[in-house]
Design goal:
The protein has about 170 residues and is an alpha+beta fold. It is built from one helix and eight strands. Strands 1-2-3-4-5 form a five-stranded antiparallel sheet, covered by helices on one side. The radius of gyration is 34 Å and the shape is rod-shaped.
Length: about 170
């Protein structure tokens, strides 16, 4: 038997024990519902923060790829002594240049071509990847001014494309 210390009723005809606090099922469900809503709002905010960070990181990757291409291609074009580009013609997606090593006087050939989304640099017959995720590239020349236009895109995210155009003056022999 339950000993009743208080004569108050819970509304169902059962006596309530004095000093015993508790939650009804309705109060418990309301509390759980409020916690679920708060958790959903917080999770959505955290998810958005992660998406933004990932977007910024892939954008930086495209910029880094574009900078790296600039450095490699500029170095090669500056030392070019001859090229297969036609002066004043529309940009093309591949170029071959020849250059002379100042230390050994050996003549070398360097070619750039786009293979899928990889820019391939071939030096004296040895091919290597000069850039990845390159969606477009164009080479042209006007007198001794090379123009290179490239678009780098982060893998799987076309929204982070970085288009770069730069001019490189061919160095004249001393």
């Amino acid at each position: 038997k339950i000993k009743c210390l208080d004569s108050k009723s819970t509304g169902r005809g059962r006596p309530r024990l004095a000093g015993r606090a508790g939650f009804t099922l309705i109060e418990l469900l309301v509390g759980i519902s409020i916690m679920a809503m708060v958790t959903t709002v917080l999770a959505s905010g955290v998810s958005q923060a992660f998406k933004q960070a990932r977007f910024q990181r892939t954008g930086l990757t495209s910029q880094d790829e574009s900078r790296r291409l600039y450095l490699v291609i500029t170095r090669d074009l500056q030392i070019a002594t001859a090229t297969d580009l036609v002066d004043g013609a529309a940009p093309v997606s591949s170029v071959t240049i020849t250059w002379v090593d100042p230390n050994t006087s050996a003549v070398h050939t360097t070619a750039y071509s786009l293979s899928g989304t990889n820019l391939v640099r071939t030096v004296d017959g040895v091919a290597m990847t000069a850039g990845r995720n390159i969606s477009a590239i164009g080479f042209s020349i006007s007198t001794s001014l090379f123009t290179v236009a490239a678009t780098a895109t982060s893998e799987g995210n076309a929204n982070t494309a970085v288009a770069s155009t730069w001019n490189v003056y061919k160095r004249t022999a001393p």
